[in-house]
């Protein structure tokens, strides 16, 4: 029995390491929810020293893995306080990119809500400037931030090289930004966010996201801004079906954005419509189970969509908040649904088709996966 357990542990370790080595594409990652626990702890201590928060109220939650939903909301409150400082936003953005790159994410779309805070002298533009400054400060890897159709691809910061089967390659990550419309915002504020996305299109901003508390706000409030984005040719992804709001789910499907996030609480007719529209879905396994959108990993709608050959990509949502990683999400798919290594590789590879960056970036990423095939002996 001990020998059998040892083989099982070794097999799990090998699969987890394989999932880390696998090149991956991340399309649904919230900046503030991806903060390192160590950074949260350090910044929380600083806030406590200033008398802004009580450190003991958040210390245990920060240090805990497998947080409950109420504990997650407590951290959300902390995120909102932290991100009122430009320097903190810059630091978080830098570290988030470094962390995704460290687990071989080769393309990353980060979404964040531009914030106004008059007391801190923060505008939506200055907030985004702080985010972009963080991306440019990354030194651990090469960051490619700009689309080649708007300006020359800039490789930011020279890095050490890594070797694959004798081939020397620079470790590189393509990073793009999505501006999130928060469901608490007014129509005017939502339109401001879309216009800012247009203004920053040469700085790596390539899309619009609708997110926030799913029980707050009305679809009609954000529709003018989303239509404006569509008219401008800005790609759109929408959080859909986090709660069973029949009217809004139908409206979102009718709007037909380029991608959808979560899609947990759909009824049979809505599932049928989603599949007929073939809108790519950003799947967030751990997040959906922890927030109650899916009853369990085993009963997650990933299996139904995957078996139906629906376009989808595995994502983290909030890797810091939910104590996960994109590598872990791939491992969970293998362990829960029995996907083989070739199937996991194909799943990661297919996500390239759903990115919002231009065709030149897609071509580069396809080359990354083509090169990776030579390194993965068990992928054919």
Please, could you describe this protein's structure?
With 380 residues, this protein is α/β, with parallel strands linked by helices. The chain has a single domain (25-372), classed as TIM Barrel (Alpha-Beta Barrel). The protein contains 15 helices and 12 strands. The longest helix is centred in the N-terminal third of the chain and has 20 residues, at 2-21. It is globular, with a radius of gyration of 20 Å.
- Give the domain tally: 1
Number of strands: 12
* Large-scale geometry: globular
Poorly predicted runs of 5 or more residues: 148-168
Brief characterization of the structure:
With about 375 residues, the protein is an alpha/beta fold.
Task: Give me the secondary-structure topology.
Layout: H1 2-21, E1 24-30, H2 37-49, H3 55-63, H4 69-82, H5 86-102, E2 105-112, H6 124-136, E3 142-144, E4 155-156, E5 161-164, E6 167-170, E7 172-182, H7 187-199, E8 205-211, H8 219-232, E9 236-240, H9 246-255, E10 259-262, H10 268-277, E11 281-283, H11 285-290, H12 302-307, E12 312-314, H13 326-337, H14 341-350, H15 359-375
Parallel strand pairs: 1-2, 2-7, 3-7, 7-8, 8-9, 9-10, 10-11, 11-12
Antiparallel strand pairs: 3-4, 5-6
Which descriptors apply to this entry?
380 residues, alpha/beta, TIM Barrel, ten-stranded mixed sheet, two-stranded antiparallel sheet, 15 helices, 12 strands
